[in-house]
């Protein structure tokens, strides 16, 4: 019996080779009909024998192309129309509808094989791609995703490429960035004086890097600054020029074998390195490796990635063990994307420029991830992941959430989708702020979202807050920072109930005007009740104390020893000029420029400085990271502390500082002190959760905030909570740091009540 089925497929089904796949699948099932891209997804009609139809429908899901993400398939059975053959019909457009847009995807195995096949017409062609791989998000100007809506619009396909593009059985059928050496983009090597004549610009670039030069390389989402990662002098010069003294550089190696020469790689880490998104993966260094120590100083880990664009593969088809591949920018400004812009902004940083002439429509930094507890944890969700939505269990209004200040992302929502932006970065300079505003407009246009509310952080000085407050005729919802952290973690874990929320991070504006950061709350998506926190101490000099960490050591010691503070005998007071110390003490005493804080990050800073690990930092969380790196993992001791019961629980860590001073005076190794301190923090977190469980009969604990990027701490906290029969939830797909904040803001503002506390 003949029958007809109409299918509607939603998800990431455009620009991923879905129609040719359907074409082939219909053919192999002897079905007639058609397939069509519409603005919201893909429509299919097939008719034939009922058995073949059923098998076809099943295989649409099972055998879908690797990049397709199917959200739903609706099927309707109809009477046969007697179609003649199977055709791909022309796209239907509808201006107000939206489709999901694929992120940029690393080179596929088929293209890789062609890239290094001397007989192939794209042999060593650095822009080879197909429907299963290549740039997407970074070249799209508008939807539908057709060539004229991408930055490939200016390249006219040659007859061979055009034929592939039009052949439904070809891997390059409607591959919008399809190109070859005859018709597509090309690379050119330049220095500041102009083009360098050579046969093979990529080979020449490699030669120059072998000689120790620094080359700015245009990639998929922006420029990288590259040099030989084993050349200590070159890496140091790059640090000097980039004005980046300690913050680790990411590196790229050709294959796993090379990476294993300098890092330990577990099976899970290998999987993460090889996945199509190709994030930078944090891997543990091997002792005595050949990578320059200046790549990631004072750190036991290196951020490593495998090549993801064909250009990278050709570059790394060389004897170099690894290339430094750090974002092409000065300090924390947005990554450079244009050729002219590169010459202007990177002229003091790079000796040479490896340009190409395919424009980058949207800049997009590399993503960063690690493996923790056997699964992937995102630290920066950007290239390869954005603008893929995070899908929620509930429907959302159209909302724009502005995010925080550091590691900013914003979030736009529609239906059950949360489109969390790629990494915007630190919103502390005008370039970043402009990039932020442009990106918001770009997302609004691509996803056809007109927000009815804007959610923002309560911190009055954040540029993201300023942006929100400047928008008119729209509902504004202020969201407390740590509530947003906790709810972001709840949302991705599908929690919609009251939980114990633990937020540990550096800085977040509190509802009482203090700087919060070690917060225990009973929270749900609609509100929170602050139930406990670290005892307030002064933040002498405000933001200065995040840079000069010894200020926090003085602040904590003052809170313990008061006026007698300088009577204690510790190396810190010999390292730092006494006038400075006295000045800080007087700031605290008089309460001048010394706001109050319960920040967890500042507690780590204080300990890091007190024991002589780091007195001042050059990048965010450096003191805490270096403190974690030296922990002696065999130590199980803790310091004593007090939890004071009142309206809220107050955690008093005065005894911790007395204990550390005692240990310092008895020459206990720093690694032991660090471990005891970490254990203490884990211990008071668990004690607090136990108190809140008894009071509220809740045993689900949600852990969020930047401090939980600390692997030692999150491992200890999770282990101890599990031992006490709590159920713990942590971030995986979106970062625990401020990069995940925007999602929490969006979900909170989706609930009716405008901020902030219930009780
Ligand atoms: Zn491919
Ligand atoms: Zn061509």
Word description of this protein:
The protein is α/β, with parallel strands linked by helices. The protein is built from 23 helices and 30 strands. The strands form 5 sheets. Strands 6, 7, 8, 9, 10, 11, 12, 13, 14, 15, 16 and 17 form a 12-stranded mixed sheet that branches. Helix 21 (670-696) crosses helix 22. Bound molecules: zinc ion (2 copies). Residues 108, 110-111, 129-130, 132-133 line the site of one zinc ion.
Please describe the structure with a list of short key phrases separated by commas or semicolons.
single chain; 759 residues; alpha/beta; 23 helices; globular; binds zinc ion
In summary, what is this structure?
The chain is built from 23 helices and 30 strands. The strands form 5 sheets. Strands 6, 7, 8, 9, 10, 11, 12, 13, 14, 15, 16 and 17 form a 12-stranded mixed sheet that branches. Strands 27-28-24-23-22-29-30 form a 7-stranded mixed sheet, sandwiched between helices. Strands 4-1-3-2-5 form a 5-stranded mixed sheet.
Ordered list of secondary-structure elements with their pairings:
Layout: E1 2-12, H1 18-28, E2 32-38, E3 41-49, H2 50-62, E4 69-78, E5 86-88, H3 109-115, H4 159-166, E6 187-191, E7 194-195, H5 201-210, E8 215-218, E9 223-228, H6 232-242, E10 250-252, H7 256-259, E11 263-264, H8 267-274, E12 280-285, E13 301-305, H9 310-316, E14 323-327, H10 339-345, E15 352-356, E16 368-372, E17 375-380, E18 390-401, E19 411-420, H11 430-446, E20 453-457, H12 463-470, E21 475-479, H13 481-492, E22 499-509, E23 515-523, E24 528-534, E25 537-538, H14 544-547, H15 550-561, H16 572-575, H17 578-590, E26 596-597, H18 600-610, H19 622-629, E27 642-644, E28 649-652, H20 654-665, H21 670-696, E29 700-704, H22 711-723, E30 727-729, H23 741-750
Parallel strand pairs: 2-5, 8-15, 10-13, 12-16, 18-20, 20-21, 22-29, 24-28, 29-30
Antiparallel strand pairs: 1-3, 1-4, 2-3, 6-7, 6-15, 8-9, 9-14, 10-14, 11-12, 12-13, 16-17, 18-19, 22-23, 23-24, 25-26, 27-28
Helix pairs in contact: 5-9, 13-23, 15-17, 15-18, 15-20, 18-19, 20-21, 21-22
The structure holds zinc ion (2 copies).
């Amino acid at each position: 019996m003949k029958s007809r089925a109409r299918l509607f497929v939603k998800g990431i089904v455009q620009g991923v080779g879905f129609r040719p796949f359907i074409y082939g699948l219909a053919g192999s099932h002897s079905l007639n009909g058609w397939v069509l891209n519409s603005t919201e997804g893909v429509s299919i009609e097939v008719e034939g024998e009922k058995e073949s139809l059923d098998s076809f429908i099943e295989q649409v899901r099972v055998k879908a192309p690797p990049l397709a993400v199917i959200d739903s398939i609706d099927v309707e059975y109809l009477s046969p129309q007697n179609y003649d053959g199977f055709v791909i019909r022309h796209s239907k457009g509808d201006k107000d509808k939206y489709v999901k847009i694929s992120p940029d995807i690393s080179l596929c195995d088929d293209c890789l094989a062609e890239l290094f096949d001397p007989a192939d017409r794209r042999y060593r062609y650095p822009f080879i791609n197909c429907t299963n791989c290549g740039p997407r998000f970074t070249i799209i100007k508008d939807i539908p995703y057709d060539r004229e809506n991408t930055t490939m619009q200016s390249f006219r396909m040659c007859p061979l490429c055009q034929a592939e593009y039009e052949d439904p059985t070809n891997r390059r059928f409607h591959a919008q960035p399809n190109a070859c050496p005859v018709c597509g983009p090309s690379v050119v090597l330049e220095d500041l004086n102009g083009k360098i004549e050579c046969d093979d610009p990529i080979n020449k670039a490699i030669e120059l890097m072998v000689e120790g030069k620094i080359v700015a390389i245009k990639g998929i989402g922006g420029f990288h600054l590259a040099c030989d990662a084993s050349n200590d002098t070159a890496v140091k010069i790059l640090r000097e020029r980039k004005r980046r003294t300690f913050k680790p550089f990411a590196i790229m190696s050709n294959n796993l074998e090379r990476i294993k020469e300098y890092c330990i790689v577990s099976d899970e880490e290998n999987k993460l390195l090889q996945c199509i998104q190709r994030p930078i993966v944090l891997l543990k260094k091997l002792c005595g490796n050949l990578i320059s120590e200046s790549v990631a100083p004072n750190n036991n880990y290196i951020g490593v990635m495998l090549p993801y664009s064909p250009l990278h593969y050709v570059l790394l088809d060389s004897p170099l063990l690894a290339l430094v591949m750090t974002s092409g920018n000065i300090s924390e400004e947005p990554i450079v994307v244009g050729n002219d812009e590169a010459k202007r902004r990177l002229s003091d940083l790079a000796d040479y420029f490896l340009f190409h002439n395919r424009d980058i429509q949207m800049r997009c930094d590399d993503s960063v991830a690690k493996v923790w507890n056997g699964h992937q944890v995102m630290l920066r969700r950007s290239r390869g992941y954005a603008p893929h939505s995070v899908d929620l269990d509930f429907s959302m209004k159209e909302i724009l959430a502005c995010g925080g200040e550091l590691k900013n992302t914003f979030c736009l929502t529609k239906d059950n989708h949360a489109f969390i932006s790629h990494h915007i970065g630190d919103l502390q300079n005008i370039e970043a702020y402009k990039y932020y505003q442009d990106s918001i407009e770009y997302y609004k246009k691509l996803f056809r979202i007109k927000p009815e509310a804007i959610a923002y952080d309560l911190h009055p000085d954040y540029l993201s807050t300023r942006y929100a407050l400047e928008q008119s005729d729209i509902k504004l919802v202020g969201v407390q920072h740590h509530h947003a952290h906790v709810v972001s973690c709840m949302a991705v874990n599908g929690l919609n109930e009251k939980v114990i929320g633990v937020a540990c991070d550096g800085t977040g504006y509190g509802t009482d005007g203090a700087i919060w950061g070690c917060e225990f709350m009973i929270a749900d998506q609609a509100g929170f009740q602050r139930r406990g926190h670290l005892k307030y101490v002064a933040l002498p000099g405000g933001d200065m104390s995040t840079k000069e960490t010894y200020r926090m050591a003085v602040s904590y010691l003052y809170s313990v020893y008061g006026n007698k503070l300088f009577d204690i005998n510790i190396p810190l007071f010999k390292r730092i000029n006494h006038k400075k110390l006295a000045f800080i003490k007087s700031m605290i005493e008089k309460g001048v420029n010394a706001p109050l804080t319960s920040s967890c990050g500042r507690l780590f800073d204080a300990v890091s400085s007190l024991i002589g690990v780091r007195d001042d930092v050059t990048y965010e969380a450096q003191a805490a990271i270096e403190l974690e790196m030296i922990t002696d993992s065999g130590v199980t001791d803790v310091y004593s502390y007090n939890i004071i019961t009142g309206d809220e629980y107050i955690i008093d860590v005065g005894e911790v500082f007395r204990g550390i001073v005692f240990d310092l005076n008895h020459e206990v190794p720093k690694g032991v002190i660090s471990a005891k301190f970490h254990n203490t923090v884990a211990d008071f977190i668990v004690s607090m959760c136990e108190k809140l469980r008894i009071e509220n009969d809740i045993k689900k604990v949600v852990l969020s905030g930047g401090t939980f990027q600390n692997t030692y701490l999150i491992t200890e906290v999770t282990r101890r909570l599990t031992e006490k029969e709590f159920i713990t939830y942590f971030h995986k797909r979106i970062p625990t740091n401020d990069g995940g904040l925007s999602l929490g803001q969006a979900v909170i503002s989706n609930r009716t009540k405008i901020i902030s506390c219930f009780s």
